[in-house]
Amino acid sequence: MAAKQRVLKLTIMQHRNPSMSEEDFHAHWTRKHAPLASAWLQRNEIISYTQYHTPKSTRYLAASVAKDFGWTLAGYDGYVDFMVSSVEDLKNAVEDPEYPEKVLPDEQMFMDQSNSVVTVGWEEVYVKDGKVINIDRDGNSIYGQDGRVKLWTCGRWCLGESKELGWR
User: Fold this and answer.
1) CB 6 within 8 A of CB 114
2) CB under 8 Å to 110, separation ≥6 — which residues?
């Protein structure tokens, strides 16, 4: 099995600016902000940028399931995911002069940043395109319990090495 690069996923849960309608928020985020942010993020070596839109009309599709399991239905208008090699990469991106000049003013216009919530971690994907992946021949996850990836090389298992602020 080839070596997997462990990347970090930074997710920001966000609310729209209360002065903006839900429809206008989603339209602006897609049509204006995505093109503005994408070139800046690419130039700053962000691996991926994904918008996850959660208007009320789709959020409440999960209401009965949430109730059945005793879950709380999240009230965010959207989530944004950044895949990065390290948290330092995103820090460098916001230090790029384009961020305070162009990107931040746009974010402040359509998002309520005072109520945003952030988390960072990594993905462990086990089903993709309808197929089970990342499970070894013995039925175990290829991801170690300590978050490191087990790699199959030269007929033996070894562990990938972590680096501070990210995985390589």
Assistant:
1) no
2) 16, 17, 20, 24, 25, 28, 29, 33
Complete domains list, the chain, with CATH:
8-121 (3.30.70.100), 127-167 (no CATH)
pLDDT tens for residues 32-44? 999 999 999 999 9
**How does DSSP assign the chain, residue by residue?**
-PPPPP-EEEEEEEEE-TTS-HHHHHHHIIIIIHHHHHHHHHHTT-SEEEEEE--HHHHGGGHHHHHHHTPPPP--SEEEEEEESBHHHHHHHHHSTHIIIIIHHHHHHHEEEEEEEEEEE-----EETTEE-SB-TTS-BSB-TTSPBEEEETTEEEEPPEETTEE-
CA angle at 29 for the pair 26 and 34, rounded to the nearest 5°: 145
pTM of the predicted model as reported, rounded to 2 decimal places: 0.78
